[in-house]
Specification:
Length: 133
């Protein structure tokens, strides 16, 4: 069989650099003992990997996901959230302690009207210019 070229694979994977990454990853998989999906025909692993991509026996999307997964060092696992009553009790205790310390301070940070915000912005003074920056 004639050797596979990049032009045979470029319509399956648009970016040549991504094609090289995927074929290299697949060639490493084959060398580690993964089953091949085309006849070997006395070809080396990179050529077999390119032939698999060209003949679409493997999905480039699946190869890309597998490559990303193999490069990840830390995989986040979605853990169930703590029960809501526990969090509410902790928040109430924190709020009670804070309100005891500051009974006179009733500041609401997220409750500002647009007019108050504009008045505050207009009252700002521009910093003095210096040659340092």
């Amino acid at each position: 069989m004639a050797r596979v070229t990049v032009e045979d694979c470029i319509d399956k994977v648009d970016n040549r650099f991504e094609l090289v990454l995927l074929a290299g990853h697949r060639a490493r998989q084959i060398s580690q003992g993964a089953a091949i999906t085309v006849n070997r025909d006395n070809d080396k692993n990179p050529v077999v990997a390119l032939r698999e991509i060209a003949e679409e026996t493997l999905s480039p999307g699946d190869l890309k996901e597998d490559l990303i997964h193999s490069l990840q060092r830390h995989v986040e696992v979605d853990e169930p959230e703590a029960e809501a009553p526990e969090l509410i009790d902790q928040a109430d205790a924190t709020t009670a302690n804070a309100s005891d310390d500051r009974e006179d301070d009733n500041i609401a940070f997220d409750r500002m009207s647009e007019e108050d915000l504009l008045a505050g912005i207009e009252g700002l003074v521009a910093p003095e210019k210096s040659d340092d920056y």
